[in-house]
UniProtKB/TrEMBL annotation:
GO molecular function, one term: DNA binding
UniProt-recorded name of the protein: TetR/AcrR family transcriptional regulator
Domain HTH tetR-type: 2-62
Organism in which the protein naturally occurs: Paenibacillus albus
DNA-binding is among the record's keywords: yes
Record flagged with keyword Protease: no
One Pfam family, short name: TetR_N
DNA-binding region range list: 25-44
Alphabetical UniProt keywords: DNA-binding
Annotated PROSITE patterns: HTH_TETR_2
Domain of life (superkingdom): Bacteria
Amino acid sequence: MSLLKEKIIGSAMQIFSQKGYAATSIQDIANDCGIAKGSLYKIFASKEDLLVEVYRNRTQAMFEEANRIRSDLSMSPRERFVLQTHRQFKFFLEFKYSIKDFYELPMNEDGVFSKFLQQMRSQMLVNYAELMITVYGPEIENNKWDIIALYSGILKEYMIMTTLITSPFDYDRMANFVVDRMDEMVAGIRSSELEPILDEEVMSKFVANGMHGCRVPTGEQLHASLTKLTATIQELQVTNARKAELHEAAHLLQEEADDERPRMVLVRALIGLLQTQHELTAIASQLERLYESKRTRLLS
């Protein structure tokens, strides 16, 4: 990396942090670096490109530190888990502007920043998967994505709270508290015989697509979910008549998925029927979201 590019990134990090992304102009950064705006545009074609580079620079440092922590065998797996959680809080503390401004950013689904976020999310999920298996062992493999969802959700909410509340936080205590709660939840999941909410096949495809900066197409997600629905119905301990009814609903949903313009009144009625069978509630809700997503895309 050239010295000028490094200087621009450092300046952007500082000004984004002080003023927020939306309020920062390319001219602000050029002035801080003592260069003409045109010279900056020769290195970064847009403010969005510069934002991506700022994020990439910092997240790469975060992932490298996570790898160093995981490789430090002088600590127990749980100690490494606590330290990595603490580092996550510290990382996002430095990037408070990212959390505050994130939902106000002009997010073009096919834009540079949107694609980068998908790549970063997938890389983060892979990092968390390795972490959870290291801490809790291979026996959680079947439920690892649900465990990761719980962990990342807790982190996200605490990070948001730290941007909204001005009083100081004890991040060491917070990290230990989070890991204690994860221990309890993982113990509960281990003792449960419930099927995972986040399916391994679906999540693996989601992560793989994200690594390439793209989402799993809605059609593919629908197909995978309907395949899982059919398999789940087949395993239900219900009467033959009830099973036939549910299979018929799944068949009709498949026909609507294959149609370019699914009939949402029929789809909602079929999903309502599936939701009367408690074992199918989660997958029915997922299907409802996917059909609504397909409908929204058609209308846009």
